[in-house]
Write a structure and sequence with these properties.
By secondary structure, the chain is of the alpha+beta class. About 20% of the residues lie in helices and about 35% in strands. The chain has 8 helices and 19 strands. The chain has helices spanning about 10-15, 35-45, 65-70, 120-130, 150-160, 200-210, 220-230, 270-280; strands at about 20-25, 25-30, 45-50, 55-60, 85-90, 95-105, 110-115, 135-140, 140-145, 170-175, 180-185, 190-200, 215, 285-290, 305, 310-320, 325-335, 345-350, 350-360. The strands form 4 sheets. Strands 10-11-12-9-3-13 form a 6-stranded mixed beta sheet, with helices on both faces. It has a 6-stranded antiparallel barrel with strand order 14-17-16-15-18-19. Strands 5-6-7-4-8 form a 5-stranded antiparallel beta sheet, covered by helices on one side. α2 packs across α7 (about 220-230). The longest helix has 11 residues, at about 120-130. The radius of gyration is 21 Å and the shape is globular. The termini are far apart.
């Protein structure tokens, strides 16, 4: 087994008493002494600080980086205005999802953030697929996520200009003399900021943020329950190479110009499969939200059944939702059982627990749109 890598905040995690676990090739904090439930609740009520430095940060340069990236993703990158960020998907020739990522138009280049578990394969995929003259730079930077309804109050003290941005905007600022790249985004369903900073300045910035009274360090355990309540996919669980964007309910990530009839229709891997599914609506399964009864959580891998006992799907993410106060899950069911309000049954250790197909997100999003 290869040795686990460390983020620039590894020493701080130890100092803060984090429980460290292997994750995507890194040793990462799953929780701190506060505990997962309280960390979750603190983020929903105040402000949490997450170390997401394990994710891949890349710069794409060249004569036409947006056009080059559009050959690999179905998003509208050409139409992305400078200073804005967009969610995108790497797709395969079979129409499956290779990874999801964030793309920022940083003016004369693109700034990409990819998942840690897919980082190396994404870099290879980009280098194979990009047209001549385009250069990909792999960055060694820290990445912090400041999330929660009081994130803007905290940021207003440290970097007031960043608070003028709205959801999915990106800018370059300074905090205490540290040059930072800030996006008003995150993966918790709350308002917040993702802050990229030089690796050697990461710990000092994290300590500066943690010194604010509203801010607590938050681990991967609460990050997972927060994103689940927000109805957000985790790559390798809710989306993967066997799942198309249409099945995953991510049609919104396919830009209008890339769809049939658009000015740049198709032109990305798997376009024929994906655009056919969008048009014909002949896919057989769909990602749905699921609300349970009682308190018993329904975990990933649990099979779902209809009232007659037929297997109609599987849970891909699940647990107890601290903010919802009941079990929440997402998974895939046959399209015939995907209508909101449909009752299905989860097989948990031989017991069939009722669940209801529900809208996502399970909690009202707190994104700041101005």
């Amino acid at each position: 087994m290869s040795e686990l890598k460390h983020t620039p905040l590894h020493g701080l995690h130890r100092e803060l008493g984090a429980k460290l676990v292997p994750f995507a090739g890194y040793e990462m904090p799953v929780q701190y002494p506060l505990g997962v439930k309280k960390e979750h609740e603190h983020t929903r009520s105040a402000c949490g600080l997450f170390d997401v430095s394990h994710m891949g940060q890349l710069l794409l340069r060249g004569p036409s980086p947006a056009e080059a990236l559009e050959t690999l993703v179905p998003a509208d990158i050409v139409g992305l205005e400078p200073g804005w960020q967009r969610y995108a998907l790497f797709t395969s020739e079979a129409g499956g999802i290779l990874d999801d990522l964030m793309v920022v138009n940083a003016g004369d280049h693109l700034y990409l953030v990819v998942n840690a578990a897919c980082k190396e394969q994404d870099i290879a995929h980009l280098r194979r697929g990009l047209s001549a003259g385009h250069e990909l730079e792999v960055l060694d930077r820290g990445l912090l996520a400041l999330q929660g309804p009081k994130a803007a109050e905290v940021m207003a003290r440290l970097c007031p200009a960043a608070c003028e941005m709205v959801f999915m905007q990106h800018g370059r600022f300074e905090i205490d003399g540290f040059p930072v790249w800030v996006s008003r985004s995150g993966y918790t369903g709350e308002d917040g900021f993702e802050i990229s900073v030089a690796a050697e300045q990461s710990e000092a910035l994290a300590q500066r943020l943690l010194a604010e009274p509203e801010v607590e360090a938050i681990g991967l355990g609460a990050r997972d329950s927060l994103r689940l309540e927000a109805g957000l996919c985790l790559y390798g669980h809710d989306i993967d190479t066997e799942t198309t964007p249409v099945e995953a309910g991510l049609v919104w990530a396919i830009g209008q110009p890339r769809r049939r009839g658009g000015e740049r229709a198709g032109g990305f891997p798997g376009a024929d499969v994906i655009l056919h599914q969008m048009h014909a609506k002949d896919h057989q399964r769909k990602r749905v939200g699921l609300l349970g009864e009682g308190r018993a959580p329904v975990r990933e891998g649990v099979e779902l059944f209809d009232a007659e006992g037929g297997c109609i799907g599987i849970v891909t993410s699940g647990g107890f939702g601290p903010s919802v106060g009941r079990p929440v899950a997402m998974g895939y069911v046959a399209v015939s059982h995907a209508e909101i309000g449909t009752q299905v049954f989860a097989d948990v250790r031989g017991k069939r627990l009722p669940m209801t197909v529900s809208r996502m997100p399970f909690v009202a999003p707190g994104y700041y749109r101005g």
